[in-house]
Design a protein that fits this description.
homodimer, about 210 residues, alpha/beta, Barwin-like endoglucanases, 2 domains, elongated
């Protein structure tokens, strides 16, 4: 394709998209997670009352995921943390994702795990308006990961389940290893870090990172 | 030198050092800083009373530096943080080192700076038992750095003021760039990170890092 053809193609693309040329680079948006809770329906029943339905307040970037109005207090042997946000929809098992700093406050050592990998994890007490429950497992520090579609995975030359290294720049720049690729056709491109990981690199919700493998 | 000579030399070394063979590797111990305060004497006078002397509770790893019994409340336009530890001895200027997460709580944006580089930094209100003071500058997020002696600098092939990259391993491994070398003959080898930087890499006070340049 000659340069005039390329020019015409780009101009048509700009016209179609209302004036914006999409940046076809390799940067990946960052999603920053604070501590949060995923609840099973049976645990929601105990904490909020039988048959309770969580109240959506905001859609999250991953399709079908949302923040809820409801919060809970989480309690460990050494201390409690109030107003921990619940994310919906309900899941098969409850899962509590905390920061490493929270472990000191709660007095519980949580492992770094991928979402859903709860075997052998410690439990914690959840306190809600209608009841409390002592979970026997489910407390984790989330392993950093990148959600993406299968098309994105092809674009970045990675596969679902692969661990990659990501890079950021600036005065607090650096790399994080072991960032798990979670690729499927119901995901939106986003690298999930927790607030400590984001703050250590001065990353904001508008920041972007790159895969360096 | 033959193997028997080497063996004799090593045995003599062990005897001299009381049984320990020193590990001559390139690992550097980590020192983890939570938020803390360095006070000037004139600010200490306002907060604790004229001529007040801070009470040492624990020596820190850097020669002459110590943790004090005294704490202060720091207050920004959006919120306050209680029981922030003072480190001694007093300095020429007061300096408040916070975490990036604290900026949201306090409602003040602090820059990432090296200790002592306070020009153009924001102030904050300090509240003590005998008075309070609104500093006009001094609030920073500490830039990561490595204290070392001049002999250490020679060993690591770095110079005072050089910025290096450090590396850690494990599930939360990675690298941090822009780690400032602070080499002089009154320093003990230690890489200083704040709690968010340490937690993001799962580093503890017993951890070690390496310079990768």
């Amino acid at each position: 394709m000659g340069k005039y053809d390329t020019l015409v193609e780009l101009l048509l693309e700009v016209v179609k998209e209302g004036g914006e040329i999409k940046e076809k680079d390799n940067s990946i948006p960052v999603g920053i997670s604070n501590r949060h809770i995923h609840l099973s329906q049976s645990d929601a029943d105990v904490l909020f009352g039988a048959g309770y339905t969580l109240t959506k307040t905001k859609d999250l970037s991953q399709p079908g995921q949302y923040a809820c109005q409801e919060t809970l207090t989480i309690c460990g042997p050494k201390g409690a943390i109030e107003k921990v946000r619940i994310l919906g929809p309900v899941r098969r098992e409850s899962q509590i994702e905390i920061l490493l700093a929270d472990c000191f406050k709660l007095g519980i050592t949580a492992p770094v795990r991928l979402s859903g990998d709860l075997e052998g994890t410690p439990g914690i007490t959840l306190v809600g308006p209608k009841g409390s429950i002592l979970l026997t497992k489910g407390l984790i520090i989330a392993q950093r990961h990148i959600h993406m579609s299968l098309a994105d995975a092809k674009h970045f030359c990675v596969t679902d389940g692969e661990e990659v290294t990501i890079q950021t720049t600036g005065l607090r720049g650096g790399t994080y290893t072991n960032v798990m690729v979670r690729a499927n056709d119901n995901s939106s491109l986003e690298c999930h870090l927790d607030t400590e990981e984001a703050n250590a690199m001065c990353l904001k919700s508008t920041s972007k990172i790159k895969i360096v493998k």
